[in-house]
Amino acid sequence: MDDCIECGKPVDFEAMALYRKLINRGAEDxxxxxxxxxxxxxxxxxxxxxxxxxxxxxxxLFLT
Amino acid sequence: xxxxxxxxxxALDPAAFAAMNPFLFEQFANASQPYFFASAARQxxxxxxxxxxxxxxxxxxxxxxxSGGTESDNxxxxxxxxxxxxxxSALEHHAVLNACRxxxxxxxxxxxxxxxxxxxxxxxxxxxVLLSGARFVSIMxxxxxxxxxxxxxxxxxxxxxxxxxxxxxxxQAVGHIPVDVETLGIDLLSASAHKFGGxxxxxxxxxxxxxxxxxxxxxxxxxxxxxxxxxxxxxxVGMAAALKQRCDALDVxxxxxxxxxxxxxxxxxxxxxxxxxxxSAPFLPGLLSLSFPGADGEAILHRMDLMDICISTGxxxxxxxxxxxxxxxxxxxxxxxxxxxxxxxxxRSNTVEDVEAIVAGLVSILK
Lengths: 64, 367
What we know:
The complex is a heterodimer. Chain A is globular. Helix content of chain A is 48%, strand content 0%. Chain A has helices at residues 13-22, 33-40, 44-56. By secondary structure, chain A is mainly alpha-helical. In chain B, strand 3, helix 4 and strand 4 (110-113) form a beta-alpha-beta unit. In chain B, the strands form four sheets. In chain B, strands 2-8-7-6-5-3-4 form a seven-stranded mixed beta sheet, with helices on both faces.
């Protein structure tokens, strides 16, 4: 598991997929969901809602 | 929330809702029934037909109500194109393109006409296809992704020189720019209510007198035997009210939306954002296809969504591929631009504050 480029905490699969979807499709370094939310100036809950939408839409980045 | 995706759909005009209301409740009769109770619905249908006809310079008898743009396009291509060599532009909506594919499977010859890189169909290219025998032409009046307006009068006149029928998908144009069927000279025209403040699920097909076109559906004798199915009176009345509202204020709203568009483009330039506007003038007011080289259009869309701003994109991705829209492919947009393409479509309901927020949102993503 990679570490967040901001806070150093481990980044889970969902946060990696979000980072690729919202920041850089080819990213190899990631932010955790909390740091990504802070960077985008949105709540973690808003990102969670996005994840639900992406999964419903069948986005393969979010397939485990 | 800032809505800047009016090319996808528009909010129902309050005047349309007010006009629809009685036909959803008190005057719910089937307009085909012979009793007095149905006469208000019958009269409303004919008044709506006359109002819509007046908005596009047609006669009421030339307007047939449908379920929307997709049905109108399918009807035109499949029934008026039957037995003819069909030519359509590669920029068309899938309602036309997929109808052409069906006609090809049924044995018709079909040809796709490539636009130039500015998103326009060149008359000489059309002439070449007409010389090869094409006798049904379908070219959209305004493109839904680029906003480019085609020289329909010139293209139609050319088609008529060769005895071809001319259909135009005017779904994106009606209610947004002046549309006059006599000036354009076209034989068939598709329109959809929800693109100009009317309800969803209703539209019309303009059919010039003398154009031979079989019904698309088999059923009752509604619409003078041309389109079977009980008329959706409330939706039709709403469509007419919305279109009348739009057309009555067209000059003012076109100027207003044009000013918003200019402000948006100037804002991006002032912020030093590198971008390209796809297509070339004439454009529909307020519809912008913008490409940001090296950016990811889908990421821009979702990040704008997180800011409560609705826009659209010209390329969608999964983890492996980017699917670039057929329109961007048709104008041969380089991939680094195509991937970073978004569509912003403004309307008279948008404000200067909306545009400033859109610019600020884009700048925050792209800087």
